[in-house]
Amino acid sequence: MNENDKRIELLWGENDYLKKEYLNSLINKYSSPNQESFSEVSHCNGKSVSIEELQNTLMTIPFFAEFHLVIIYNLFERFKNLANNTRKQGKNANRNDWDQIVALFTNIPNQKTIVLVEDLYPENKIIVKDILQLIDSKEFKTIAYLELENWISKRLLDNGKKISNRNARLIADYVGNDMWTLSNEIEKIINFCQNEVVEEEHLEILINNPKEMKIFKLVDLLLDQNIAVSFKNIPSIFESGYSTQYLLSMLSRQMRLLIIAKQLSHFSSPKKIYKEKLGIYSDYVIDNIISQVGNRDMDVLMQLYEKI
Predict the structure, then answer these.
(1) How far apart are CA 195 and CA 245, in angstroms?
(2) What is residue 29's three-state secondary structure?
(3) For the whole model, what pTM was predicted?
């Protein structure tokens, strides 16, 4: 089998959402009724399937289907303790079984496409050596915060919606990089927002943490000394179930962060240091804090903190 003939894909990585999304796209491709020819999709558990069952699945030519997609889960987990000496094999992994699997992978019929789904890339050197030339490996990493904003914007754009960078950052801040939750929130926004542009009021209605967003907005207004507007927002916060004590604790926390940030600003500290000292890893929140302290003296910050 040469490089261009690879029909075995390895999907691995900690981002289960993107891995599942890619896998579903393959399944939809093979099971779509719009195809010119009929295709078949099979699933099997690589940790428990027998070699005989695997051989039948991989080598039997489908009678009606022209193409056959075979998805095997956690096969490499089964052979993680594989060793050259058969006496060192674990209960669920032996060299003879592995050699048979490699032979099957090397000689799969043209009608077959295999997808191996794993949590981790195999660390066993024997496995890596035997499959390296046979597979096309795709890693699905956790999306970093900086990339998350772009992912949100693209996801909405693909569905005919536009969103500002600021509002995309708001979604990232309040949902985080849990892709399953994030996808659900974006789906709600797509279904609810009738306009082409997603505005902040849409997020306040739909996002799972509307009360936290109200607090965030209130703190922002108070720090900007926009007292009149901030007072108008307070009743809605209390109606959402927050107590006066909780509101004050949130304001107090924000002021402590500002004071620490102001101290760091005297040393021209890089953003990385701000994140470490404040315990905040959202670029949007850090940028907002740095912007706030730039217009205030330390004495003013300390006085406001004491009043709160």
Answers:
(1) 38
(2) helix
(3) 0.62
